[in-house]
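Data availability excerpt. The first of two example chains:
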Amino acid sequence: MSVRLDDLDRKILAELQRDATQSLDDIAKEVGSSKTPVWNRVRKMREAGVIGPTTVLLDPDALGLEACFFVLIRTSEHEAEWQQKFLATLRARPEVLEAHRLAGEIDYILKVRVENARAYDVFYQALISEVRIFNVTALLSMEEIKFTTQLPVK
């Protein structure tokens, strides 16, 4: 379900995505409004679920998490019990930044961030010891060409 947004809402969202630490006064100035209407719109968009928790983006390289793997998983298991165990396993692993269920030949794709190939192997060994998987293919990202958390709000 999508929420109806007008141009001012979109401008506010773009500013918040660019820098959520800005004051309401600064956002209002950037979007051509005043503080109170901006505050009211932000509050309404939070209540509607358009705006989620405010967080901080960390630099993985600065934290020593220099290896990014995309892990392609095929399974022959499709029962609810297996899926629940698999999803619980993924949620419990802090190395898994993203997990998606796919249509097509690959069932799941994971984005995994670790220190190096050895750390990935530790993750892989733990994963396959916790849940039965038919096939796992790991692809090492050689270079991050584009990264953003900003959604297009046009």
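And the second chain:
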Amino acid sequence: MRKLYLLLLLPVFVFSCIEDDEDLNRERIRGSWVNETEYENQTLESTFIFQPNGTFENISKRIQGNGDFQTGILSVSTGNYSFEDGELILRTNTISNAEEWENPPATSEELIESDNVSSIPDKAEISFEENNSVMILLFYQCNDTHTGGFSNCAPPTPMRYDKI
């Protein structure tokens, strides 16, 4: 009888641990996170803002540019986030982009809203380091909808976001 009781409690324990892990990730992810990437002619900054209500905003800016590349806001996207099996799921609802990549606007009001929003969610492996002040995202899925012979997908690379 005791073994039967333990077997009945095992699924409850397993599912409560999964739920607790997802609740912990929700708590950890809330707030603003920034990733800065330097290239030869420019420095790009990506900021994720995760709200407690399950929505996010992602702002991409060029914060330093040389030659033909001017500073400004490149894109803003909004959507919903959730966790499934310990992975971060991003479902984008709106995307606004700079009309000119080389000379982006200074404010998001000058961006052009895209009518080409993919319904495929982005999935990322998520981990936290340095006492939860660093978030590592690994987007490993290819959501390229191009039907030609070549894919536009890059190999997955972990992206470091610092809490701000």
